[in-house]
Amino acid sequence: MEKTDDIKIKRGLDVLNSHKDSKLISHLNSCVHCGLCAKTCLYYLTTKDERFIPARKVELVSSIYRRYFTFTGRTFPGLVKARELDDKTVEEMVDLLYGACVMCGRCVQHCSIGVDIEYVVRKGREMLAEMGYVPGSLQSTVKAALETGNNMGISYEDFVDTVEWMEEELQDECNDTEARIPLNEHGKNVLYTLNPREPKFFPLSISAMAKVFYAAKESWTLSTNMYDVTNYAYFSSHPGEAKKIAQRMYDEMHKMKAKRLVLGECGHGVRSNRWEASNYIEKEFPFEAITSVELMAEYIRDGRIKPDKERIKDTVTLHDPCNLTRGSGVIKEQRYILKNCVNDLVEMTPHGTDNFCCGGGGGQLAMSEYNDRRLKIAELKIGQIRKTGAVIVATPCHNCIDQLIQINVTYNLNVQIKTLAEIVADSLPV
Amino acid sequence: MTWYSWLAIASLAICLAGCIYHLIRLIKLGKPKDYSRKSGSPGSGIIYSFTGAMNPVNKESAYLNLPTYIAGVIYHMGTFLAIILFFVFFFTTTLNKMITLPLVLFLFLSAIFGTGILFKRVTDKKLKQLSNPDDYISNMLVTGFQAATGIVLLIPDASYPVYMVIASLLLLYLPVGKLKHAIYFFAARYHIGYFYGWRNVWPAAKHSR
Ligand code: SF4
Ligand code: SF4
Hints:
- Chain A has 430 residues and is α/β, with parallel strands linked by helices.
- Chain A has helices spanning 6-17, 23-28, 42-47, 54-69, 71-75, 87-98, 106-110, 117-131, 136-148, 156-174, 197-200, 204-216, 233-236, 239-256, 267-281, 292-301, 322-325, 333-341, 371-377, 379-388, 398-410, 420-427; strands at 190-192, 220-221, 260-263, 288-291, 315-318, 344-346, 392-394, 416-418.
- Chain A folds into three domains: 6-133, Orthogonal Bundle (Fumarate Reductase Iron-sulfur Protein, Chain B, domain 2); 150-300, no CATH class; 306-427, Rossmann fold.
């Protein structure tokens, strides 16, 4: 690891010293070290490693805050274990804040005080990002997004080829040569966005959503210029880079003159565009941004699509992406969709706002440095899925899909993993 | 007035000044600023944060650690009681016999729980690693304050000076150590209530869980 220097340390400390409001000092001053958050965190539960207790992650950041910004920490550092921001601290921060937190926020809702642990972890990551310590693999994903417009570096030609191929699939499926996947059409009702994993690895989820749009007779388009719903700088927590990516989506909406920005099935993509983006660019969106989950629920509610639940007889369970439930308040809609599209829905225990992360959140899937840990912490999800006896695991997030596919193989789970659009499309008798 | 009364009053003034400093800082930094379009109600989220979200049935930190949680609740109730009695003692240390005994018993019980929490902090590996001297000092000051309050109720004349010294130490330490969570607890709960309320995550009763 590159050594710290005065400039880096100043950059890191500036993060703790710049306050938009009273949130940061509230959360940095309130942990009472009761340790009762330990059993809420999948890292601690699966490894029993004390370093992974949520409070230890908070402590790393707050001990630096105390050292430099409080009377007690400056005068009697030993009394409050106030820490210098030095090489050792940075190394520990990288390991715990990037490598041992999926930013799921589960601990936050159960903390005895109400410390926003996930927010403090994000602030710690922001310090590291400003100092230049983002893990290499994560930073290269951010770099690809900044340089090519999508985090997988997919070329324009490849993207268009894939979409055309999926359009043919759609036409076959709907038995209609007029069925289309529109590209770059201005003034539509919906600008739809994707996780770049879709054109790269799972193109059928694009045709599945296109089938839903077709059935709902939606006026929609994709943009070849900006279709990437993800913002990996949200995970690296570099505000400048996150802002650039957020601004691009904002500008594209204006250019395309669409009415609604529909965020594809990607938990952090939803969170970073629906909530964080306005704060990155410091502007309220003048357009509506909703998730494809909410949109599909709306179609069913309004009778625009009529799923036939008899078409999916297998037992289905739902994996809740943390950023959709705890991060965005989208909790009922996915259940409403599934209740209308499948015959037998079995919930995991716990679920909803109490769900456990699949293990792939917080940018873990983009950080190969921590692959072993990522697969280990999935044990909880494996246990939850097994208990449901489900044959299909549905989840409205391509990051979760990727992790679930990997653990399905690693742990011999033998289930099918599907997006919600795929479930809805399968249930449509078009 | 006695020297120990002066000491306690001076400590109380310093404590209040310290707490006001923290409060003013919080108020000056202000309310959360969120540019995103809200989908819920921050007000309802804040109310839920102080009510439903604090319900032990909804908190793993409570129902998965029930003995510690109950000990903690009683310990905090003991602290509130001791603080009320601190102000009462400026007027009288002799209370009606009917209420003295239950108060003493409760204060001693809460001091025993406080000692138990301290014991857990010293013996539980994960808690020990998380703790710093401030945690131990804070616990000992509060537990000592509770026990001393109980003793004053039993033998006022003999114990009052020592009690006032313990109370003064506690008051002086409160704004600089971990005990300042007496203020920041409310700020933290306000902020998570606002955050989850804004995003329509809380109140949780709105969702099927
Ligand atoms: S439950 Fe909350 S207050 Fe207690 S140690 Fe964990 S983060 Fe700190
Ligand atoms: S946000 Fe999730 S992974 Fe991170 S400390 Fe909390 S429970 Fe653990």
